[in-house]
Amino acid sequence: MSHEVAFRHIGVIHSPHTDPARTPVQPVFSHGVRGTVELFSAYAEGLRDLEGFSHIYLFYWFHRSAETKLLVQPYLDNSLRGVFATRATPRPNKLGMSVVRLLSVKGAVLEIDEVDILDQTPLLDIKPYVARFDTRTHVRSGWQDQVSDEQAQQRGKNNYPGCT
Amino acid sequence: MSHEVAFRHIGVIHSPHTDPARTPVQPVFSHGVRGTVELFSAYAEGLRDLEGFSHIYLFYWFHRSAETKLLVQPYLDNSLRGVFATRATPRPNKLGMSVVRLLSVKGAVLEIDEVDILDQTPLLDIKPYVARFDTRTHVRSGWQDQVSDEQAQQRGKNNYPGCT
Hints:
The structure is a homodimer of 164-residue chains. Chain A has 164 residues and is mostly beta strands. Helix content of chain A is 8%, strand content 31%. The first copy, chain A, contains 2 helices and 9 strands; from the N terminus they run βββββββββαα. Chain A has helices at residues 131-134, 149-157, and strands spanning 4-8, 11-14, 34-39, 55-61, 71-72, 81-82, 95-106, 109-113, 121-128. Chain A has a 6-stranded antiparallel barrel with strand order 2-3-8-7-4-9. A two-stranded antiparallel sheet of chain A has the order 5-6. In chain A, 51% of the residues are buried. Chains A and B meet through β1, β4, β6, β7 and β9 of A and β1, β4, β6, β7 and β9 of B.
């Protein structure tokens, strides 16, 4: 068995973010930032029923992230953390995930809000956000619990690439 | 630019599930089902600080799913739905995602609970579940809102592969 898997691009994400250093670190810091997902037309049929969902997961390739580091300094913190304990981009596989708000579906184009994704990012998958499956309560969030909401909000606004 | 991206396997997920037809459809239907994630040792340093998180996302390859269908009949429903409006496995890119409960980190091995993943599944990425980023309220969940909790719970227990 091969030790790699090849995923094809199934579309492109368009957003106002063209500079990694000025892109919000998470969708929750991106209220009112709109973009579009242009699914390649061959896949359009797979969008049926998606419009009923208020939020969707987008999975994509961090196409502007070249390096891999196992320890990173997250933007919301001053310590070196294991990359798997962060959302930072320099991970072994450059797989990005965002939960965005779905505004409309027109043909093969999705209009979305709360966009923390760079323009021209290759899309790999879309899944619906399902409250029943995806909400967890009584969550411990490790070092993130030591970052206050105000601090996160403030730093998130300063726009630094995916290093939360 | 290539229209594919290659992701390498960074570890293997071990679970009691060896038959797709008898595997729970979601982690929320898998309470008490334990498994392990064996990260390849080259990546072990990236696990630092992960143990502080009660829940983590696992991203993996649906390695037993061969076919692609744009319309699928989800297990929790009787209608044909667009594959992107479901979590079904026959998607264009066989990317799986589960939020599991993290019990312990010992070296490069994670002990996990609420496992809905087949044994020997290749691991692609780990990200922390962060309450601040990942919880959404006022969510509409499309056709899933028409499935009652009891129905979902009951059908989930009947163990059918990832077709929720």
